[in-house]
Fold each of these.
Amino acid sequence: DIVVTQSPASLAVSLGERATINCKSSQSVLYSSDNKNYLAWYQQKPGQPPKLLIHWASTRESGVPDRFSGSGSGTDFTLTISSLQAEDVAVYYCQQYYRTPRMFGQGTKVEIK
Amino acid sequence: EVQLVESGGGLVQPGGSLRLSCAASGFTFSNYWMSWVRQAPGKGLEWVANIKQDGTEKYYVDSVKGRFIISRDNAKNSLYLQMNSLRAEDTAVYYCAREAVGGNSGIFDYWGQGTLVTVSS
């Protein structure tokens, strides 16, 4: 199985400041035949289902604000919220879809400082 | 508008069975792989199983193999999860999720609101 590990478990950021979440996979999720990283990011607000933010490590879903960006390749990835807004308070998960079983990171809780 | 509505959750005793359903609308259900993903109370997300468009391929996480069965009825735009030999550790909210792009992509682009399954005596 390809295990995905996130850090930190939680972070508190001031409004308007940058939030950075890290994700590391136990094996590379870069597929050589298409040069794509099989990694996604989701946002889950309290009492709601997860929402897909980013796939292919850096491709934002339609309608996702551009303050959210994904980067990285191979085994190391980052989700950045460039200017934290109140509505961004949530738990964020990374997920690999390179191989079954699809596995999620344990989540990072983002709060306002 | 894509909608996924789960039902069938509830309280069941250890060793019991339950069948979850997911009613899909707003897209051509038969064109997509579908998945079940669960979330134990206060915990993270765990992919459970998925199924190909025509039902001929199915995959499961090891912890449910031999106990859970995923199925679908494209005529009814519905996804199912038959859960047998339930254990306390199966207690979770179960989400139905569509896989993007029409293939076994593993990218979950739409999710239902979930249905809670509680396994307890």
Amino acid sequence: DIRMTQSPSSVSASVGDRVTITCRASQGVGNWLAWYQQKPGKAPRLLIYAASSLLTGVPSRFSGSGSGTDFTLTISSLQPEDFATYYCQQANSLPRTFGRGTKVEVK
Amino acid sequence: EVRLVETGGGLSQPGGSLRLSCAVSGLTVGTTYMSWVRQTPLKGLEWVSFISDGGDIYYADSVTGRFTISRDTFRNMLFLQMNSLRDDDTAIYYCARGHWWPDYWGQGTLVTVSS
């Protein structure tokens, strides 16, 4: 199985801050990577797919980059509704696997 | 509007069975991939199973031989029959559209396996 390692596990930030989350795959996944946002009691919400493609309706302050084994999710200017947990997920091979999440908390 | 609503969760003893249902509106289950994904605080998010538009099926190793995914194209529903339940099957189970990166998810249904 491909192991997805996210860092940091949590980050404290303020509204307006730039936040960067990293995801590393244990083996290359090409650009077969997605990012999700999850709020307490809710299902994950797809934000970015194919490493850098923004899902329709997702604010442009979210962006993704990377390929192979190293990927990044960036929130350019954190908004109050962005405090949540973020997960990466590889779709290159079965089983699909997720990172353990990065919690973005209020500083 | 796309909507996925899971039902059927609850409490089961180890070795028991539960059948999860996912009622889908706004998209057609028979023409797309549909998945079940579960989540626990300990293990995080785990892909359980998916079924393709053509009927091809995948199961995670942890549920192979115990869980069965199916769909009813007339009622536009997805199902997960879970047998021989174990303590570590305790999780919130989500149905979702897609098998690469699901873009529509239900609200989840909680399955608790405990004696």
Amino acid sequence: EPEVTQTPSHQVTQMGQEVILRCVPISNHLYFYWYRQILGQKVEFLVSFYNNEISEKSEIFDDQFSVERPDGSNFTLKIRSTKLEDSAMYFCASKARTGLYEQFFGPGTRLTVL
Amino acid sequence: AQSVTQLGSHVSVSEGALVLLRCNYSSSVPPYLFWYVQYPNQGLQLLLKYTSAATLVKGINGFEAEFKKSETSFHLTKPSAHMSDAAEYFCAVSDKETSGSRLTFGEGTQLTVNP
């Protein structure tokens, strides 16, 4: 069964460093998402991506964040200069097409900023 | 703006007992509603979804949920809990009029099943 994969499973970085979180969505899917979950809090939407551009972003997704689909298979989230409060579990998700279709989630990357 | 409230961050039941996880939503447009489950060290897995076709929705693993517009609720139930049901459960709402369909999640409910 196809699944969304994410690497690494755990990333530790120093405050101020750049990190790139990687996701491989399901191959025929068209919509891609990033969500995050700070420990003890709810899962929050960051950004959605369709047709090689951002279709929607939340107020959390500021200039420190960027997304890219560099090669038609990977979907990346870059945090330019990490802050302590960026420590969270980051989930990638993908969806087949427009409308009410299931978003399939990856297992997440736990980002720890020291 | 949409929001979801899950009453009870922790629910504990005995094996074989009824599971009831509560979810109330707020949405300015007719909502799409979802329940996801997260097992330890895994991603979110869809249990079931409400799409306005039927108010009682059946999902995987014996779970079901009923959409009640008058109560703005979408509670998740299972008649008989199994040890393997122990996990965290998330209720989520989506604005059906937004093609990107971001999900707005509740706080989550940790379900413990006691032998």
